[in-house]
Structure formats: C-alpha cells, structure tokens
Design brief:
Order of helices and strands of chain A: HHHHHHHHHHHHHHH
Shape of chain B: elongated
Number of strands of chain B: 2
Helix content of chain A: over 70%
Largest sheet of chain B: 2 strands, antiparallel
Shape of chain A: elongated
Oligomer: heterodimer
Structural class of chain B: mainly alpha
Strand order of the largest sheet of chain B: 1-2
Number of helices of chain A: 15
Largest sheet of chain A: none
Strand content of chain B: under 5%
C-alpha cells in the first residue's frame, strides 16, 4: 500500500483481537497508572527528602532521625511502585502494542538498562537504610550511598517518560537514533520537571499523613524537633513544589506538539489547575496558622490534589488518544489489506498443493539436490564426504544408505556429525538409488 | 518486521533474555516458592519449643534467613521478573505482544496475586519482630504468603506451557484453551517439588552459616530441613518423569540436540546425569542430615543447591530449545514470523511487507544490501554476525573458512529446516534467498557490522 504519511512508518497491527472492550482497558490503564505513579512519587520524592534531611542532620541530630524515618518508608514504597507498575505496563502493551514496542526498540539500551539500574538502586536503598547506625561515624560514605540510589531513581523515570513520549510521535521514529536523541524531543524535559515537582508534593503530603497519625510514636523516634514544626516544613515543601507547577505546567502545555491538543483536553487540564488553587490556599494556611492546629486541612488538601491528578491524567490520556487517532486509522487499513493478501496467498498455495505435478515415483535427483546437495558434492568434500566416496562404501547397498540417513552416527573425527533425515522411506530409497548411480 | 529491529550483535539477543530469565528463576524457585514455606516451617517449629531461650534462637534463625531471601527477592528477583518482559518486548515483540493479547486476563489475575504476594511478604517481614506476641497469626500469614507465591508461579507456568504447545488453542483461540494446554500440569508437577527441594537445599546452607556456633540448633534445624527435602524428593522424581513423558514427539526428537549443538548430543546424557546427581545428592545430604547427629560440613551442604541450580538452568535451556522452531508452537516461528503468513512471504517476499526495510525491490545493484536487510529481519532473533551463535561460526563449521559459495548457501538455507528441525523455514522469496546468500558470501569475505535500531535508528525505503 502506498504510504500517504511520507516518512512516517506504518506498521501492521497484530492480527489478534483485544482481550476486552477498549474503553475498559483504557479505564484500567488510567486508574492503575495513577496508583503506580503515586508510589513512584513517594519513592522518588522520599529519596530526595531523605538526602535533604540527612544532609541537614549533620548539624542537627533531629533531622538525621527524620531522614532515617523517611528512609524506612522508601523500601516499602519502592516495592509497591514496582508491583503497581506491572498492570499499567501490561495494559499499555495491549492497547498500544505497535507504538510502545517501537519506542522500546528505538531506545533499547536505556530500556533494558532499567533492570540492572533499578536493582542496584534498590540494593543501595536497603544498604542505606540498614547501615544507618553502623555508618553513623562515616556520614560522607553513608550520604554517598543514599545519593547514588537517589541519582539512579532520578534517571529511571526519564527512560519511561522518553518511551511513553516517543510512542506518540511515529513521525519521529525514523529520525531517532537511540535514547539520547529521543530525549531531545522538545517536551521531554518540561514533563520530567513536572513529574519531579509532583514527586516532592506527593512525598511531603505522604509523610505528613504518615507522621501526624496518633499511633505514630513521633516523640520517641525524633528528639529535638516538635512534630508540628516538622509537619510545617513538609507542608512548605508541598506548597513550594505545587507553586512551581504553575511555571512548569504552562511550559509542558506549550511544548506539546499540537496534533494531540484539543479543546476538551485543554478544558480538562484547566479544571485540574483550578482545583489546585484551593489546595494551595489550604497548604498556605497549614504553613501559617498556629502550630496547635496543624494538620486540620490535610484531608481537604489530599482530596483536592487527588482530583487535580485525576484531571491531569485524564487530560494526558485524551492527548494520547487524539494524537494517535490518524495514525491508528492508517495502521488499521494497512492491517486489513495485509490480512486479505495473506488469505489470498494461502488460498492460492492450497490450490497449488491440491494439483501437484503428476509424478509416479519420488525423483531421487530432485530430492538429493534439495536435502543432501548442500553438504555432499560429487567428488569434493564439502560439509560431509563426497558422493564418490559414499559409492565406494555402500557399493550397491541402498538400504545401508537409508539406515544411515535415518540415524547417522559419527565416524569421522574431522567432520561434523550428520543430522538425521526425517523423510519417508521411499524418498530415502530414491535418494540412495540416485547417489549410487550418480556420475558427476 | 513491524517493529524497529533491536539487535545486540555481540551479546546475542536470545542470550540477553536467557541471562535475565535464568537469574529470575534461580531466585524465584528456591527463595520464594520453596523458601517461604520453609521459613514458615522453621518459624512454626521454633514456636513449639518449651524453653523461651530455644524459642528465640529458632525465631532469630528463621528471621535471618528470611532477611536474606527478602532482600534478594524484592530487588534482583522482582526486577529480573519485570526484566524478562522488558527484554522479550525488545527482542521478540511479536511473541510477547501475541501472548499478552491471549493471556491478558491470566496476566491480570497474575498481577492481582502478585500484588497480594508483595503486600504479604512486606507484612510478613516487617511485622516479624512486632508480632512476637501473637505468633500463631504471624505463622498463618506465612502460610498464606507461601500459597500466594506458589499461585504466582502456577499462572506463569501456564503461559510457558502454552508457548511450547498451544494444544486446542490453534483451532479455538480462547483463554481457557490456552491455559489448558497439554504441558501445563506436568510442568507444574515438576517445578513445584523442584522449588521445594531447592528451597531446602539453600536453607541448609544458610543454617550452616547462621547457626555455625550453635551446635544443637544447627543439627536440629538441618534435620528438619532434611526431612522437608526427603518429603518432596519422590514428588520431584514423579513430576520429572511425567513432564518428559508428555513432551510431544517432535520436541523429543529435538531433545538430543537441545544441549547446544549436535557435536554435543551427549550433553543430553549429561542432563540426565544432572537430574540424577541433583536428586541423589539432595537425597544423600538429606538422609545424613535427617539423622540429626552429625554436622553437615558447610561445603557439602552447598553441593545439592549448586547441582540443583545447574539442573534448573539446564532444564530452562532445554525447555526453551525444544519449542523451536516456534516461539509460540504452531503459530509464530522463533524468527518472529507467523506461520500463517508464510504463503504470502513465499510469493511476495518479506521485504515488500516489512515496515522497516531500506529495500523493497531487489535489483542487481542493491542485492547485497537487500540480503543484509533480509538477514536483519529473518535471522537476528537468534544469530549474530560476529558475536555469540554467529553466522560466521555456523557457516564455517559446515563449509570451512571460505570463500563460501553463494549457490551452496542458498541451497542449504532453503532446505535447512527439513534436517535442522529447530530452524524455522526461510520465510522469504527465492530472490530474497539469493540476496541473503550473496550478502553472506560478501560478509564471509569482507566482514560487516550490524548495529540495531537502538543505536542507528530505522530507515524506510524511498
């Protein structure tokens, strides 16, 4: 089929139906992705906060205790981040098969490096957590361990982001040469910073929720910094990072290639932005109101920001759907044409097979050249010994050749062993007969 | 054909999957499927002790072993599990994409069980010290965790069995038919006791390490684990026999060459020797340990786990090999081409229908380049030019160092599947076969390199 989209590759889709209605798969994708993202945010944001507080803790012990407490949450959140990532990965594989796998292949080395990199980062996070006391007097080394883990955690989302971004632009697939060139597609970095700021907000709020619980034995774990003060620090972090989104957000929107932008998608995103405004006001009140009441707006903040995330993720999905709409049609048309061609060719092949050229007996010469000739020449050694030599061994003994061909042994040390020939006896006999009479 | 071709010309694509997959199974089977019930057993046994002192010794021992298992399974174990998927999607996107469409709901259920398993192992590990008072509850948690971990494996084995023999699925493409493939139960019956015995073997090693200064604890724990192994060993023997018995006859035909190449056909016997050695050594150590009177030397206690790991790695390799020439039996060849598409390819060639090929029509001028594109599309899922399982080594083994003859090569490649049963038939047209042979002759004389799409991107035909 002619390719009307010029340099855009148009692959065929897999000829197997989707396992469920598309809307259901999309719904599951959006929901499961949100849960995955939440734990990734806790993990990445938590690592950044751990390093930040541990660094501060060199002067004031209380911060070191806080860092240790945060570190204990990371190892749990990281396990959940991985396991919760399986569902969206599965769904995106099903829904965007050709798009996702193409992006994976084009950034293949970075994509597969995810596995060892995350493994190392996870091992380092455990080491960081469990060596807290034993490396108390080697803070530099301890910070370094945590720092390397955090640095890796900062790289991994970039790899996923590049893939999920590249898959939306089949028109760029031919221009991409590896991960770093895919990284340079304009909207990758704005989206990345968008994600990082969200991670800080999410991790700060998670820790507020975690540490403000009455069952949490704050006073026995952290000495020298009242709970209310820490909560205020965390709220400030969340507020600052959310505020930053008002700069990064527009940048993301402006760098989005236009083919996926629609009015409805813009409205959905905007609705998310508006919900973040009251959330920020409550955050500000948490930071500025008296210590005794800190934490009373927590539920409202979480509720509003969750809605923001729902709108943002839905908006993203709308963008994805719109931007791939045209290309998906081209893929569908091409796949259908192809399926027809396959069916026709299969039919034709069947007809040919049903009317074989009349022949009474198997033709030893034809069979020899297709099954044996690649290894046995007439008078020169190729892979196996030449026919001339075989004639000498099996002089008149067709059955001997047949027996050998069915279950060859190994007679010659300097020759590779012959594979068994799974052919019907009468064909083997025809070959044997031809070989014994063969003259050049 | 429809995906940019990821290719590692030195390491070899299949080798990449193999490393990740073997690591995963070597962690999963002994440390999760077999290890978790073993730890629960140790914990339960310790909880029945009369003296407080003994009780806490046992508890501490079980916890230390769990600590190691927990760290390894939640890092390297979890990531290699995801890694199998990530690497498969790079190397044979057709296969993994098709499997996911057929097995979506199985995988989805698998995910739910997997989430449960991770939550349970986190709970089991993190509440160990905190729940010391209510030991019975904690032990129950361990039992549920062990069951969840076994279910996770049993779902994946359904998919593995399907890849080897889809059974009725070929005529009726439903999920149930896919799951009830003929190799499912035998394989499960083989893996389950293998995992349990391996868990015991590895556990023995750790008991020797962690309880090296507590003689009576070490002897009793070793005896307990030994009895656990003796309990499972007969199941392992029966399961292994059933599994091999069920392998379809074409696959059995390949078994002799499954251990690398034909020159090493006797490797198959080594496989049998490994099985026997694994079972016998595990049995011998277990009988010795179960007496509970003598110390098992640390080195000796490690031997069965090493042999069993070798056996498992070898078993996976044989399993991977015997499904050749297919990635999904009877449906998709391991070169990434569907069997049902072959008539079209024979007629039109593969280049015409390939999304990513710089050549669509072969001429005298572009013949060698066309041959290279054919090689990239049809051969690189298993072969490299210059690396592991390289085409140079393979052709040299047959036709010597060269120069090779184009006619000989094209003649051979055209019929190789009828004698080399593990090779898929060459998918393309006669012109493409000729071009491929021309390229190989060129390569044999002048050499070439073959970077994948991950480094040089893709090209479309003009």
């Amino acid at each position: 089929m002619e390719n009307p989209a010029f340099s855009t590759p148009i692959p065929h889709d897999l000829p197997l139906p989707l396992p469920a209605p598309e809307w259901l798969l999309v719904l599951l994708l959006v929901l499961s992705f949100m849960v995955h993202l939440l734990f990734v945010n806790f993990m990445v944001g938590g690592s950044l906060l751990t390093i930040f507080f541990e660094w501060k803790g060199r002067k004031q012990k209380a911060f070191d205790d806080i860092a240790h407490e945060i570190a204990k949450t990371i190892t749990v959140n990281k396990s959940l981040a991985v396991v919760m990532g399986v569902a969206p990965l599965l769904l995106i594989n099903v829904l965007y098969t050709v798009y996702f796998y193409s992006a994976n292949a084009l950034t293949g080395l970075a994509w597969i490096l995810i596995v060892p990199l995350i493994t190392v980062a996870f091992l380092l996070t455990y080491l960081h957590k469990y060596s807290w006391d034993s490396l108390q007097n080697h803070k530099g080394l301890h910070l370094f361990i945590g720092g390397v883990a955090t640095a890796i955690f900062l790289c991994i989302p970039l790899v996923f982001l590049v893939n999920i971004n590249l898959m939306l632009f089949p028109n760029l697939w031919n221009e991409v040469h590896g991960f770093f060139s895919a990284l340079m597609i304009p909207n990758v970095f704005p989206r990345y910073f968008h994600f990082l700021a969200a991670s800080i907000t999410a991790a700060c709020l998670f820790l507020v929720g975690y540490m403000k619980r009455s069952q949490y034995p704050y006073e026995s774990l952290i000495r020298g910094l009242p709970r209310a003060e820490l909560l205020k620090i965390l709220y400030s972090g969340a507020l600052g990072a959310t505020g930053l989104q008002f700069l990064i957000g527009p940048l993301v929107y402006l760098t989005l290639p236009s083919h996926g932008i629609s009015i409805s998608m813009s409205l959905v995103i905007l609705a998310g932005v508006f919900l973040a405004v009251p959330a920020m006001i409550y955050l500000w009140r948490e930071v500025s109101e008296p210590k005794a009441t800190v934490g009373r707006h927590f539920n409202k903040i979480v509720f509003l920001l969750t809605l923001t995330v729902v709108f943002m993720v839905s908006g993203r999905h709308m963008y994805r759907a719109t931007s791939l709409e045209g290309h998906k049609k081209l893929v569908k048309a091409k796949t259908e044409t192809y399926a027809k061609a396959v069916a026709e060719a299969t039919e034709a092949a069947k007809t040919n097979a049903a009317n074989p050229i009349a022949s009474d007996a198997p033709d030893g010469k034809v069979l020899f050249s297709s099954y044996c000739g690649a290894c046995h020449g007439y008078d020169k050694r190729q892979v196996g010994p030449p026919v001339l030599e075989i004639q000498g061994i099996y002089n008149g003994n067709i059955d001997g050749i047949v027996q050998w061909a069915k279950a060859p042994g190994k007679k010659r040390a300097d020759y590779p062993q012959m594979p068994p020939m799974p052919l019907p006896d009468e064909q083997l006999r025809a070959i044997g007969g031809y070989m014994l009479e063969m003259k050049n | 054909m429809d995906f940019p071709v990821f290719h590692l010309d030195f390491l070899n694509n299949r080798f990449l999957i193999a490393i990740i997959a073997v690591l995963h199974v070597l962690i999963n089977h002994p440390l999760a499927v077999g290890g978790l019930p073993l730890i629960t057993l140790l914990e339960w046994w310790g909880s029945k002790k009369k003296s407080q002192d003994e009780m806490s010794q046992w508890d501490h021992l079980a916890y230390r072993i769990l600590f190691v298992f927990f760290i390894i399974t939640t890092t390297l174990g979890a990531m290699t599990g995801v890694g199998i998927w990530l690497s498969a999607s790079l190397i044979n996107p057709y296969a993994i994409g098709s499997l996911i469409r057929v097995f979506f709901w199985a995988w989805f259920v698998e995910w739910i069980v997997f989430v449960t398993e991770v939550c349970l192992i986190l709970a089991y590990f993190l509440t160990w010290k905190k729940l010391l008072i209510d030991k019975a509850k904690h032990i129950r948690l361990g039992i549920i965790l062990s069951v969840a971990s076994w279910i996770t494996m049993s779902i994946i084995v359904a998919i593995l069995g399907f890849m080897m023999d889809p059974g009725n699925w070929r005529t009726d493409r439903s999920l149930i038919n896919g799951i009830l493939n003929p190799l499912y139960l035998p394989q499960l019956a083989f893996r389950t006791p293998l995992a349990m015995v391996m868990g015991g073997a590895v556990g023995l090693g750790f008991v020797n390490l962690f309880a090296r200064h507590q003689r009576s604890l070490r002897l009793e724990a070793s005896a307990l684990i030994s009895r656990w192994m003796i309990f499972w060993l007969p199941f392992l023997a029966v399961g292994g026999y059933w599994y091999y018995h069920r392998l379809p006859s074409t696959m059995i035909g390949n078994l002799a060459v499954a251990n690398t190449t034909q020159e090493f056909a006797n490797w198959y016997h080594i496989l049998l020797v490994t099985i026997v050695a694994g079972v016998v050594s595990a049995f011998a150590v277990a009988i010795y340990g179960s007496l509970g009177r003598f110390k098992i030397p640390a080195l000796v206690s490690v031997v069965p786990s090493l042999i069993l790991m070798g056996l498992l790695a070898h078993f996976e390799r044989v399993r991977e090999f015997i499904r050749k020439p297919y990635a999904i039996g009877g449906y998709l060849y391991s070169n990434g081409f569907r069997e049902e598409d072959y008539p079209l390819f024979k007629k039109d060639g593969i280049l015409k229908h390939a999304t990513y090929s710089s050549v669509k029509t072969i001429t005298d001028q572009n013949k060698i380049l066309a041959g290279k594109e054919v090689f990239m599309l049809a051969c690189t899922r298993c072969h490299t030019l210059n690396g592991i399982n390289s085409i140079r080594t393979n052709i040299t083994a047959m036709y010597g160092p060269g120069p090779w003859s184009k006619d000989q090569l094209s003649n051979y490649i055209g019929v190789m599947h009828s004698t080399r049963r593990y090779m898929p038939p060459f998918p393309g047209s006669p012109q493409e076969l000729d071009a491929l042979a021309a390229y190989l002759v060129y390569f044999g004389t002048y050499g070439d390199q073959l970077p994948g799409a991950q480094s040089i991107g893709t090209k479309l035909a003009q």
